[in-house]
Write a structure and sequence with these properties.
about 350 residues; alpha+beta; OB fold (Dihydrolipoamide Acetyltransferase, E2P); 4 domains; four-stranded antiparallel beta sheet; about 45% helix; about 25% strand
Length: about 350
């Protein structure tokens, strides 16, 4: 543009000189035609120069000023206790599943051991009910069974002998009846001992076994509950992120629900900027935009995740003389790539470019 102005100035001066010469040489008709030709050539040169040096219009980018916002995760426990170990420091990057801190494990560890012992008692009681009597007791019943069989055989022989003598008219009918009754009594005794042996080999009644199994299930639930409370004394990360702040240190008492530290996952870093109502129609959820910031090697690509449905005044954080008292809409966008989100810091001013 500076070269153009310089050439144009020279051409104007030349034109003025030509006019002066024209007036001076008005008395010279023979030179008039020559001067006219010179003026015409000079004007043509001016038009050509303007045409060649005309700067084409460059479309301006639409840029919105904004800042980086982070949604912090505050990590706390469901139980109170003394902070025994702090495994991280402020500014550390942690991976998913990494241990952050431990509280004192008592009395939860004692409760776990007690619950496990009660479970063993319930298991032993159930297993005992599922078995028969002891082998020695069964051996005693089997011996009684053998004796009952022997007595029955002897009674049958005695009955047969009395029947023979009764037919020979040697003994009275009463003696034969006694022998028959003795045989029946020994048969009943044998049946009784056989039933006792079968019962001894069986387990307890079904209702008792069901009740014992229910006791085992309750004891197992108590163990799992005690183990859950014990696990609350150790906190691990559910997602990767950076430790932003620490609120308690080893040796301090941590109340229930109080966060010990705060974490900022890369997935919860976003950009917040404000769009005038006249340009809101060009912004939609899912749209890809460019992001510029100090220290960024290249533009970071962000995706619009939220467009506020309510208008508000320009916030003071991006206050300027041109933007004051204007109604705008808040828009949030998140970096498309995780490695680019790590480079952004909450509160950092950025410029959002709409291509």
């Amino acid at each position: 543009m500076t070269s153009f102005h310089s050439r144009f100035k020279k051409i104007v001066i030349l034109f003025i000189l030509l006019v002066i010469v024209w007036q001076v040489l008005e008395r010279r008709p023979d030179l008039k035609e020559r001067l006219l030709e010179k003026v015409t050539d000079g004007w043509s040169l001016v038009q050509q120069t303007v045409t060649q040096t005309e700067v084409p219009a460059v479309p301006e980018e639409v840029i919105f000023q904004g800042y980086v916002e982070g949604e912090f995760v505050h990590l706390a426990t469901s139980v109170a206790g003394n902070l025994r170990k702090l495994a991280v420091q402020r500014g550390d990057w942690v991976k998913k599943g990494e241990v952050l801190f431990d509280l004192d494990t008592e009395p939860e560890a004692t409760a776990v051991r007690e619950a496990q012992e009660r479970l063993q008692v319930a298991l032993a009681r159930r297993n005992d009910l599922q078995k028969g009597q002891r082998p020695l007791e069964i051996s005693v019943i089997e011996a009684r069974l053998t004796r009952a069989k022997t007595d029955l055989e002897l009674a049958k022989l005695e009955q047969a002998r009395y029947e023979k003598l009764y037919r020979q008219k040697v003994v009275q009918e009463e003696a034969l009846d006694t022998a028959r009754a003795t045989t029946q009594r020994h048969e009943s005794t044998l049946q009784e001992v056989m039933a006792q042996l079968q019962t001894a080999k069986l387990a307890a009644r079904e209702d008792l076994i069901v009740a014992a199994e229910a006791e085992v299930a309750v004891a197992q639930t108590v163990v799992e509950k005690a183990q859950w409370w014990l696990a609350q004394k150790q906190v691990k990360t559910s997602q990767a992120g950076q430790v932003v702040d620490i609120f308690y240190y080893p040796g301090e008492w941590v109340p229930v629900g109080n966060p010990v530290l705060s974490l900022l996952p890369p997935t919860q870093i976003k950009v917040r900027f404000f769009v005038p109502e006249t340009l809101l129609g060009g912004i939609e959820v899912g749209q890809r935009l460019g992001l510029r910031c100090d220290g960024c090697a290249k533009n970071i690509v962000v995706s619009v995740s939220y467009v506020s449905p309510q208008a508000e005044y320009t916030p003071p954080v991006i206050y300027s003389r041109e933007n004051r008292a204007k109604l705008v809409y808040m828009v949030e966008a998140v970096p498309v790539k995780k490695e680019e989100a790590i480079k952004l810091h909450p509160g950092q001013p950025v410029a959002v470019v709409v291509p």
